[in-house]
Amino acid sequence: MKEKIREIDKYLDKFRFKEKGMEDRKIYEEVLDLRTLKTLYKLSAKGYIRALGGVISTGKEANVFYADGHFECKDVSMAVKIYRIETSEFYRMDEYLFGDRRFDLRRISKKDMIFVWAEKEFRNLQRAYEANVNVPRPFVHLKNVILMEFLGEREIPVPTLADLGIELKEIVDVREFFNELIENVKRLFEAELVHADLSEYNVVLFKDRPYLIDMGQSVLVDHPYAMSYLRRDLKNLIRFFSKFGIKASIEELINYVTDKATD
User: Fold this and answer.
1) Which single residue of 29, 51, 184, 244 has CA 20 to 30 Å from 230?
2) Catalytic residue among 24, 100, 197, 233
3) Is residue 169 packed enough to be buried (19+ CB in 10 Å), middle (13-18) or exposed (0-12)?
4) 89 near 61, Cβ under 8 Å?
5) Where are the alpha helices (DSSP H) in the chain?
């Protein structure tokens, strides 16, 4: 155990931390395992990560940190999403992975499945971004780590719709915002993806526009449960926006998103 701690310290010593320094280092030491630190070091050695910052968010499956980064010859603000290997608490992961023709899961261990999940989110973000869906731009991924565009300012992330609640109406025209959100769901479907976990917790307000986040569970439209996931996503949006007096028919929205003619 002492030897492992010494090796963790060795890798932490190689990183450059931002202003908080030792405080951030302590957080990294507490939540990251040795294999993840080695992965971060590889990304740092390749020049993607310039300096590690503080925590953006923590969850049962992943932690997200801020970093000063470099991508395609430009300095960028990055969100570093790290899926936990040792203590991951994925539930129903198989439901979203099996049935995805992009991955061969016949000989994959539980821990390797974490790597597949991270790759899946990265590829989902790539597909969405290339289809002009409002999502964080994905930069690069390695094993259980994804580097993507940071949505926020001065290392403070933008709020989710759940964070804003009724205050959303003080910032934007809610009807226009809702319409743009549905347009993004439609563009995502045209890119052959369904978010599959869309709600006020996975939509953020960035530059007065809706952005979709957390796309690890997103599935291709030929997934066996794709349409039921789409229905659930749209029901969640209808429920949230109903508090602003917006009424929408679930069937009409499904027909619109899937480009089916109404009767």
Assistant:
1) 244
2) 197
3) middle
4) yes
5) 2-14, 22-31, 34-45, 93-97, 110-130, 161-164, 174-190, 226-241, 250-257
* Residue carrying structure tokens 């290392």: 155
Question: Which pLDDT score, from 0 to 100, does residue 153 have?
Answer: 92
Among residues 89, 93, 115, 98, which one has the least CA distance to residue 36? 115
Is 59 within 8 Å of 43 (Cβ atoms)? no
Indicate if 197 belongs to the active site: yes
Residue type for position 232: R
Over residues 56-84, the pLDDT tens digits come to: 988 878 999 999 999 999 999 999 999 98
Question: Which residues have CB under 8 Å from 74's CB, separation 6+?
Answer: none
Please answer whether residues 63 and 82 qualify as being in contact, where contact means their C-beta atoms are separated by less than 8 angstroms: yes
Q: What is the pLDDT of residues 212-254, one digit of tens each?
A: 999 999 999 999 999 999 999 999 999 999 999 999 999 999 9
Give a three-class secondary structure readout of 1-27: CHHHHHHHHHHHHHCCECCCCHHHHHH
- Indicate which residue of 208, 214, 222, 259 is catalytic: 214
- Burial of residue 138, with CB atoms counted within 10 A of its CB: 0-12 exposed, 13-18 middle, 19 or more buried: buried
CA distance 69 to 71: 7
What's the CA gap between 263 and 260, in Å, rounded? 9
Query: What pLDDT, on a 0 to 100 scale, did the predictor assign at position 92?
Result: 65
Closest among 67, 74, 55 to 15, alpha carbons compared: 67
